[in-house]
Amino acid sequence: MKNLVLVLMWVLLVNQASAQCPIIPSPSFYSPGMKYRIESALVLDSTELDVNNWNYFKSCLKNLFDIDLKHTEANPLFHFGASPNLSQPPNIADEGYIIDLTLMGNSIDAGSRSGQFYAINSLLQLISHDENGWYIQGATVRDEPAFKWRGLHLDVSRHFFSVDEVKRYIDLMALYKFNTFHWHLTDDQGWRIEIKQYPKLTEVGAYRDSTMLGHYSDQPRIFDKNAYGGFYTQDEIREVVKYAQERHITVVPEIELPGHSRAALAAYPELSCTGLQQGVPGTWGIFDDIYCSKQETIDFMKNVLSEVIELFPSEYIHIGGDEAPKVRWEACPNCKKVMDENELANTHELQSYFIKQMDEFLTSKGKKLIGWDEILEGGLSPNAAVMSWRGMQGGIEAAQQKHEVVMTPTTYCYFDYYQSSHPSEPLAIGGYLPLEKVYKFNPVPNGLSADEAKYILGGQANLWAEYITSLEQLEYMTYPRALALAQSVWCHEKPSFEAFLSDYLAYQEDFLERNDVNYARSIHQPQLEISRKKNGINVHFKGMGDDYHFTVSTKEIGGYSMSGGQAMGVNDTLFFEKAPWGTDPKIIQTSVLDEAGRSSLVNRFVLHSNLGAEIEMVTQPHPKYNHNGSLNLVDGIIGTLPWKGSQWLGFDTSYVEFIVDLGEEKDISSVELGFLDQNGSWIYLPEQITVQVSKNSKWCLKKKFTTKVESTDPTLLLNTSGRYVRVRIEAMEQIPIGQEGGGNMPWTFIDEIQIR
Ligand code: TNX
After folding, report:
1. pTM value > 0.85
2. Distance in Å, CA 254 to ligand 1 centroid
3. Which terminus of the chain is less hemmed in, N or C, by CB atoms within 10 Å?
């Protein structure tokens, strides 16, 4: 008997472990039970259900499943218990809930109205359809969030989204238990919030007369010459805030200062340092003209914030603070006066002074200031919270100084970056942020003590809209990556990426479809996993799960005979052999076709003679742009435009050095390298390249071959022999003043090295 109990327990445990969970973000505990059939209505005892939550539940059920919600006290399918309206039930955290929909129970308890709302969103994901119709998956679910700030941001300045579109964005956030909507309302390219005291902010600042088309780094740049713009009236803002509140989402407004302020300066040029009248720009980037630090601007800002505070009940008000060049301030007598009067040593301290005025003002109004991590420069204002975007270092420093932090590093949270390197991805700003990378995000970085970690409020993804021109595209960039982010900010312990992916594929794509979301299917493209092999590389096409079938065909191009059409199965690997020394490279094109013969992932491999060679990196690439490490330089894939982070190694160092090992001594006649030249993104061609060749990697006294770099694919001609090739690339000292990022160190982006 005892054994039988043990076996039964074992079976139960095993079943539980393998049970897939339809709910995302994954709850702390999930154990499925039987299915409960739903006819045309879900009938429950809603006595203790908050009226807002009831309305929300009812409309979602109707819209998604055409199911009615009905109240009964006699024999309900389940009831909402432990009313958050009365007392907080024991053992349930504030935003937590417990669903007990099993043979033993039929209650839903929550720690608060928010908890109840999250329970409802989980219930929505438990509803499914089979051959017998709709059912709700019975289950025990225990759940509560790990972080207090679970955010998505939206930039409505670069492209404007209507009230209905914003509501739609909020609707989708609610389904995945996000609770903070960061509304980026002002920027250079448009001021989007009505401010009664300053009508020109929207009359003038909300419209631009042209908009950049194509990518920022395209030459020549092309513009759409139509007027573009829009703004929200204060009534509309209130409407959105209320709408979000009903979905337990706090709206945090952002009013940018002192930089990203060209739209405001177009309306009130007297607030700039020069006073010059300029228009609202139609190009992206960072502009030198920012608010002047004089008293007049500070008064203006306080007046604006006074109206903003009235509209947004949120605890935090975001004041921007990022990317404010100091060139105008350096040359401005008014700014100099402020610096002298307040004994400020430099313009960074002046920025701190400016922010501090805002901090004191907001604090006096019972609000908290939050700003981008640049507000650390020149000293953090006493009550300020920091939003860390340039990596997590700013957030770490702020937490160590006992300031609150929201983590939103570009490396994991910039949903304006590409999500795959497939050619069909819509034009994006650059970068590379696939779903799996987002999944790795943990808002609490290593190295913080438990006490410091308490200052991390949570995390957020940012949707900058330079290249996001429609709601459809916004959804494409946001989903499914927002689901991976939801895991990072909700789960105490998230499942493995594989488990998440399997749940996602089993349930969530259907759910997204049911919600009409234009989610990206980028993950359905097989991933390329490249590895070094003796004499070449292996290219492994890693498909998604076992039931996804595709074929890969190869053909040789570039002056050679076309061969190919070679069919392959799932998860296949090709071996590409390097070209024999002394011969021209072969070019192989691979195409991936799904079962319907659609969506081919096309890649070109240049099989040169140092394909897959070992490389010792003396200088390390920046962690953000280090896809596949040194193999990236010899994987046969030549970096292409538009720039997608995965194909290039990026460096922010003054020089780059690495040593290629050819395996044995060779006669060497040339070395060719590839560089990116995208000045708008601070990426410049380097100044010069020096190459040395050695038999045994001893370098002193070795002849140096040097060339100035004048094109994106410079070739050095040499006539020597050796096994090791040392390459040293000298970057330009600084970006020329007057250019984007002028005065800063440029980035160097390198791809493929070909040695012959
Ligand atoms: C940097 S993130 C910005 C934005 C751009 C974004 C594009 C931040 C605080 N500033 O102005 O839209 O990069 O990725």
Report:
1. yes
2. 13
3. N
